[in-house]
Design a protein that fits this description.
heterodimer, A: alpha/beta, five-stranded mixed β-barrel, five-stranded parallel beta sheet, 12 helices, 13 strands, 40% helix, elongated, B: mainly alpha, 3 helices, 64% helix, 4% strand
C-alpha cells in the first residue's frame, strides 16, 4: 500500500488537501482500526474545553496524542508528565494541522493499576495539602452516648459495627444513616450524608460518626478514596471514625478521619469504652473515697484523743483555779501598787508646778520689780505717753500688794 | 449554699463531666490536703456522682434509630 503513493504519475500535481486526504486514506487503510500504544507522557496540557493534548514518547520517537474531555473525566488517575501509560485508541490525520495523532479514549498507568495510581496520587495531593495532619484530628469523645453510623443497610458492616459497639458499651444510642457504599454516585452520597448529619447535629447531638463498609476489591472500596468523601470527613465538626474494608485496606478516608478502625468489627474498640472497665473505675473511685474519708476521720479522732489526753483536759478545773489564783493575787497587790503609783505622780506634778511658777512674769516682782498700770484703762504703763498728769496709777508689787498713786509730773 | 447547689446540679452533669468531677474528688481526698469538714462534703458529693454515673450506665436500651429517612428539620 505504501507504494501506491509513488505509483502516481510524476506529472500529477496535488493540492495540499488532496495529498493530505491521500495520506489519511493510506494511513486508515494500512493501520489497524484500534491500536494499543505504550509510552511516556510529555507536554501534557488540558485545554479549557476539557480536551487534553500531549505527546507519548520513547527514546527515539514522539507521537502527538489527543484525549477528549468526555473520555478524560472517566480516568481515575491523573495523567502527568513522565508517567508511562498504555493508551488505547486510533491513529488519524488531523488535516488542518497536517499531522497524524493518536486519539486516545482510555489509558492505564503502566506497571500498576489505574486505581492504585489514582490512590497514590490522591494520597500525595491531600497529604501535601495537610488534610492528614495530626493537628486536624479531633479527639474522640471518651464516653459517646449518641453515635452516628453511616453505611449501607444491605451490607454486613452495619451489624458488625452495631455488635462491636454494643458488646462493649450497650448504653449508647446508635443513629443509623443509610448510604450506598459502592457504585456510581456512592462517594457523593456518603459526602452528602456526612454534611447532612453535621448540619442537623443540633438535633441529632451525635458525639461521633462511624463511616464504613465491609471488605471488597479496591474498586468496591473506591468511594472511600474519592476526594469528595475526604473533604467531607475533613470538614466534619463531629469526630469521624473510618471503618472500611479489611485490616490491610487503607483508604483515603482512613487517612483523613480522626481515627481509623481497621475493620467494621473493630469500630467498637475505637469508638467506645468497655462498660465493665468504666463500672470498675467508678467502683474503685467509690472505694477510695470511702476509705480515704474513713482514714481522715480516724486520723482526726486520733488527734482529738491526743489533745484530750493533755493535762488540762484531764482536770479541767485546774485551769480555772489557776486563773482564779492569779486574779486573787492581783487584787491583793492592787492598793499597794496603786499607792506607789500615786505618790510618784504627785511628785511629778509638784516639780512641774514649781517650774511653771518660776517662769511666771510675776515672779520678777519678788525680786523688787513692780508693774505700773493706768488705773482707768487698766493698761500696763510702759511709756510716759500712757498716762496724763493727774491720772491715777496702780502699782503691783510682790505678794499681791497694790498701791495707788497719782501722776504729778512726767 | 454553693455546696448545696452543686449537689443539686449533679443530676444535670453529663457522664463525662461527672466522671471528671469524681476523679477530682478522689484526687483531693487522697492528697489529704483537705479539712475534715471538706472531706465529708466531698465524700457526700462523690457518692452522689457515683450514683449519677451508675444511673446513666443502667439505661442500656440498645436502640438503633434510622436517621437517613428523617424529613428535613
Amino acid at each position: 500500500m505504501e507504494n501506491s503513493l509513488f505509483e502516481q504519475p510524476k506529472s500529477r500535481v496535488f493540492t495540499v488537501s488532496q495529498i493530505t486526504s491521500l495520506i489519511k486514506t493510506s494511513l486508515e487503510n494500512s493501520l489497524p482500526g484500534r491500536v494499543t500504544i505504550t509510552g511516556e507522557i510529555s507536554g501534557f496540557k488540558r485545554h479549557s474545553s476539557g480536551h487534553c493534548y500531549f505527546d507519548l514518547k520513547d527514546e527515539n520517537a514522539v507521537l502527538p496524542c489527543v484525549m477528549w474531555g468526555s473520555d478524560f473525566v472517566k480516568l481515575k488517575f491523573k495523567p502527568e508528565n513522565g508517567l508511562a501509560i498504555v493508551g488505547k485508541g486510533h491513529i488519524d490525520v488531523y488535516v488542518p494541522a497536517g499531522k497524524y495523532q493518536f486519539y486516545i479514549d482510555s489509558m492505564m498507568p503502566q506497571g500498576c493499576g489505574a486505581l492504585q495510581l489514582a490512590f497514590e496520587q490522591m494520597k500525595k495531593r491531600l497529604e501535601a495539602e495537610g488534610l492528614f495532619r495530626d493537628e486536624h484530628k479531633k479527639p474522640l469523645p471518651k464516653f459517646p452516648f449518641r453515635i452516628g453510623i453511616l453505611t449501607s443497610k444491605s451490607g454486613a458492616a452495619l451489624s458488625d459495627i452495631v455488635d462491636s459497639i454494643y458488646n462493649r458499651w450497650p448504653v449508647a444510642k446508635l443513629l443509623f444513616y443509610d448510604v450506598p457504599v459502592q457504585g456510581e454516585g456512592a462517594a457523593e452520597k456518603i459526602a452528602a450524608a456526612i454534611k447532612d448529619v453535621n448540619r442537623k447535629n443540633a438535633v441529632l447531638k451525635l458525639d461521633v460518626i462511624i463511616v464504613g463498609r465491609g471488605g471488597g476489591s479496591m474498586e468496591d472500596l473506591w468511594a472511600f478514596n474519592e476526594e469528595i468523601v475526604a473533604r467531607a470527613i475533613f470538614a466534619s465538626e463531629i469526630p469521624v471514625i473510618s471503618a472500611v474494608g479489611h485490616e490491610v485496606d487503607w483508604t483515603i478516608a482512613d487517612f483523613v478521619a480522626d481515627a481509623r478502625a481497621s475493620t467494621p468489627t473493630k469500630a467498637g474498640m475505637i469508638a467506645v469504652p468497655d462498660i465493665k472497665e468504666v463500672l470498675q473505675q467508678i467502683d474503685s473511685a467509690g472505694k477510695r473515697i470511702g476509705q480515704d474519708t474513713e482514714s481522715i476521720l480516724k486520723l482526726s479522732a486520733q488527734r482529738l484523743k491526743t489533745i484530750l489526753a493533755a493535762a488540762v483536759f484531764r482536770s479541767p478545773a485546774l485551769i480555772v483555779r489557776n486563773r482564779e489564783q492569779f486574779l486573787d493575787e492581783l487584787e491583793n497587790n492592787l492598793p499597794q501598787k496603786a499607792g506607789r503609783l500615786l505618790s510618784a505622780v504627785k511628785l511629778q506634778i509638784e516639780t512641774l508646778a514649781a517650774k511653771l511658777i518660776a517662769c511666771s512674769p510675776k515672779s520678777v516682782l519678788n525680786r523688787g520689780y513692780s508693774i505700773a498700770k493706768n488705773a482707768i484703762t487698766g493698761k500696763v504703763v510702759t511709756s510716759a505717753a500712757d498716762v496724763s498728769i493727774g491720772d491715777l496709777m496702780i502699782t503691783e508689787l510682790a505678794n499681791e500688794n497694790v498701791i495707788e498713786s497719782k501722776v504729778i509730773k512726767k | 449554699m454553693a455546696e448545696k447547689k452543686e449537689n443539686n446540679d449533679i443530676s444535670k452533669l453529663s457522664f463525662e463531666q461527672a466522671i471528671k468531677k469524681l476523679t477530682d474528688i478522689v484526687g483531693k481526698i487522697e492528697d489529704g490536703q483537705i479539712s475534715l469538714e471538706q472531706s465529708l462534703t466531698q465524700y457526700e458529693q462523690g457518692m452522689e456522682l457515683i450514683k449519677h454515673c451508675r444511673g446513666i450506665l443502667q439505661k442500656a436500651e440498645k436502640k438503633i434509630e434510622e436517621i437517613s429517612k428523617e424529613k428535613e428539620k
